[in-house]
Amino acid sequence: MRAKFFKPILKCHDGITHINSAPAALAVRGSERKGIAAADWIAETVFTNEKTSPRIEIPRSIVRTMRFVDSEYLRSTDLAVYWLLFGNARFQAIEKDTHSITLGAIARYLGIKSIARVVTCLEHLNRATVRYDFNLGGTRRQQTRLINISEFDADTARKGTDVVHYELPTIVREAVLVSKDYAWVDINALPRLTSKYAVMLYIRLSYIACQNFEARPAWDVSYKSLAGQLSYPTTCFRKLHVVTVVSEALAQINALGKLHKRFGFDCLVPDEFSDNFLITVGSSARRLREVAPADLPAAEYKKVVDRKALPLKDNQYPRITSLRQASTLLGKPTKLISDLWRTDVWGATNYNKGLIGLDAPSFLESIEKHGVESVFERWIDKRGFVEFGIVKAPDVAPPPPKTFMKTEPAVIVRIVESEYESDDDVTMAADYAYITPEAYEPERAPEIFEDVDDCEIAF
Which of 60, 72, 193, 212 could serve as 181's disulfide partner, Cβ 3.0–4.6 Å? Predict the structure, then answer.
């Protein structure tokens, strides 16, 4: 379901205005949303799926306030199984009291054959305690069991066809139903992470990546705060411990394949001068091939396939299906998107107009080398559709070239770069890279430098 039509305006730093997200009064709550993005949930949530990447919706309140209590024994596979059960509950209707899944489905999701390992994961989850800060029912901080899974008969051998019945806490289901903001998480990425801190960190980075670039500042967080958010054990931990664990987690996330890592990120770790992590996260734009094609009326179809207006080369026309998918993604008529594509390619061909960060020859060469479908998808992702009120994040400007003062130097002052900052910032001396003798004591310079030996000068 989509929110009602609205036209709030957001003014950007560069003076451009565009349509912002829906106000709170018109936001679609979790009870009105499907909560998963998958054509076939059961078939796609398997470890061997290398074609699609199903996603689940996790409310912001859960992402930001979930803390494990005395659950150091949990492993990455345990957390991956929990989020599979959470997504399965969304698939089966989150408002239901109980949900079910087979042991075989969990094993296929983890990419393992041992049903005993799956049972062990479920036993670990059944023991876990978690704390939330939902502010539901007049109480902010609430502690509860992570999940309630029906226990197994210890004397009976388990099979893949056995059904697991489980129940999510009431406060979690209520938080999902009333949620207005959420993170889209690629569920199949989680079993590929071997650190439980990587799993929790990946979900938080996914939430940041889903935000509008104007409202997505760098994540500046102290190592102590991040340790708490990742439920890192607080007994006798040190700064180096947290830095090591988080660095390994980020390396695992960065090593994910393109199918499961929709966003890039940069991280500055704490050092001797700072206790903070500074993480900059890119966007997790929805891929063109993941949306259903929009309806195309017959009259509009005739105009889209007509190649008389602004004619292009045969290999420069995207497929009709791609244009219809772009129509769904942007919420605009297929013909309008087709016209914009033709105009841009025509401008690159005849007027040397650059596009999506490329000059005109490079853009046209990309179509020849990589195919029009690949370039068209990049065009949809990177182009700013100001015509539709959509502004893309600006590209990072290259640093300005270094310039040097053209003076006749007598003394060269060498500046040693340091991260230390103080009121007397020595780096200001870079503005005076070349200093003449008169710059020290203009009136006495001849006397000092002519009559006195260098070793006796009181610098």
Answer: 60
